Amino acid sequence: MEHARPLPNYLVQRYHGWKATTYAENQAWYRRLAEGQHPRAMVISCCDSRVHVTSVFGADQGEFFLHRNIANLVPPYETDGAQHGTSAAVEYAVTALKVAHLIVLGHSNCGGVKGCHDMCSGAAPELEQKSSFVGRWMDILRPGYERVKDIKDPAERTAALEKEAVLVSLENLMTFPFVKSAVESGHLTLHGLWHDIGEGGIEQFSRETNRFVPI
Description:
about 220 residues, alpha/beta, 6-stranded mixed sheet, 9 helices
């Protein structure tokens, strides 16, 4: 592949530092990990570089099965023969790895959610184009926008839409037959979280109060 190039030097240096310290001090653990993974939970989070799931929860390698995409969205269940990366990750986590928990983690100041807000309100016509991968992905969140569109303040509306991204994803997860079956049998629990990056806070959705509450 003629366009492939060597890694930037700073990444090469960081790798050698890791190999000489963290890896060297824990070789037995890494060799055990190489034999197979047995994560207890799957986390679906945003691609945003500020969202660092393993740091927030103090997780070790092998503990979380992680999937990241724009705005931490899960599409509805479809069997159209097309390529569905997020759906494939969910299927593997639930049916092969048999995770006990599936967590959808949203966050503050999400660029993808802001894009959906602008697109649905008519402020981002470029995202309406069929050629926009981001726009077509954010179509998943349109039902959430319909639920918050009457909030007057644009900033409050966008913040509410960030949490709708979590709820829409949870709703869509239950359209997957294998997820629904695992939840109803008690083998899988679903969790909706929202992370305030600046304040370091985590809120979880409470079905009892029908809102997000701090943990």
